[in-house]
Amino acid sequence: HAVNTLLQDGGFGPHLLCSLIGFRDAEGRALALVYLYKRGTFYPFAPLPGAAEKRDNQLELQVRGALGDDLRVEKDLSRWFPVWGAPGL
After folding, report:
1. Among candidates 54, 44, 3, 5, which has minimal Cα distance to 21?
2. pLDDT digit string (tens) for 33-88?
3. Is 80 exceeded by the pLDDT of residue 3?
4. Structural domain harbouring 47
5. Number of domains the chain is built from
């Protein structure tokens, strides 16, 4: 958050697309919570382990349901862009 705030304060805010924080469960499955700056919303991104650019849609929808009361989750699923190879995943 601090880095993003510094970038925004430095005039780079319009150029920021998204930020993410990555998580791993006990089995090593990756999950990212992605924040879209221009929309002010979050969405989950869960790549399937061992699969070439395939997503765990069921997990993403479960996370949406779990966080929907606490965060502004992006309602338009077409805006849940994949972030393949992002640092932290």
Report:
1. 44
2. 999 988 989 999 999 988 789 999 999 999 999 999 999 999 999 999 999 999 88
3. no
4. 16-79
5. 1
